[in-house]
Amino acid sequence: MSSSLPLPAVPSRTALLEHLVHTRIAGHVATPRENNLAHYRELANGNRHYWLGLELGDRWSDEQDVLAVMAERVGVSDDPDHRHGQDTIDPELTVGALDRAAAELRKAAEDRKRVLFATGHPGGLLDVHGTVARALRSAGCDIARVPLGLYADEGVVVQFAGVAVHERGASLWHTHSPEPMRQILDAYERAGHGMPDLVFADHGWAGCAAQRGLDTVGFADCNDPALFLGEAEDTLSVAVPLDDHVADPRFYEPMIAYLLDAAGLTDA
User: Where is 23: in which H helix or E strand?
Assistant: First the structure.
């Protein structure tokens, strides 16, 4: 559940860049190069598990095209001969994406939009989503509620602090599957509810929402290329590159503080 502890002081851009590198949210991240390339290859070969709910067709069947987008939008090495060892996320690209995400949040607050939050990384990103949800609620937005009784992937879709998650075996589940988000959106349609104006999510939750035509801000790691391809094709509004599960979730707090300040929001 989202923490009620106050966020740290808003860092300057320079201080945030240093923090992202120090905590390995960006910079020299933990995900190895060989894992990144293996995932790019799986996506290019049509493995839909790696499409994160997007419909990519045969547009990204060349692994080198995927690598080129990831180098441009995430900051991984663009050297196709770099096959093993360290890979990177450019912290400047992370902060630039946070600035674009802040613009989406600012518009949502100004227009009192209905916003849906969801995460497949509750161990790392639940507080990120929950704190932003709380700030938008305080700004007058309607935080979309998840209907009761939704099941997906042998688990149930539940909600903590306004954030949809996947619960299975009495535990919050790490999942990149688009199915939980699909169940939420299908339930809204069955009930005749309007769709959210904005979705703030990650991985398959974000990909599924974007594929359904919803304005979507999504987080993803450097080994999950689909959201960045979706952004390149203008299917996804913003894709934020970051390591999505660093040593301690509190390491994301300065990033949240920066995001909310850039959006003109407060952690109420």
Answer: none
Contacts of 206-209 with C-beta under 8 Å, sequence gap 24+, read 206/52, 206/53, 206/118, 206/181, 206/236, 206/239, 207/51, 207/52, 207/53, 207/54, 207/178, 207/236, 208/52, 208/53, 208/178, 208/179, 208/181, 208/182, 209/53, 209/116, 209/118, 209/181, 209/185
Q: Which is higher by pLDDT, 77 or 1?
A: 77
Q: Where are the alpha helices (DSSP H) in 140-178?
A: none
pTM of the model: 0.95
32-53 per-position pLDDT tens digit: 999 999 999 999 999 999 999 9
Summarize pLDDT for 176-227 with one digit per residue, the tens.
999 999 999 999 999 987 899 999 999 999 999 999 999 999 999 999 999 9
Helix, strand, or coil here: 231? helix
Burial level of 84, CB count in 10 A (0-12/13-18/19+)? Answer: exposed
Q: What are phi and psi of 61, to 5 degrees?
A: -85, -5
Among residues 213, 210, 212, 214, the alpha carbon closest in space to that of 228 is found at 210
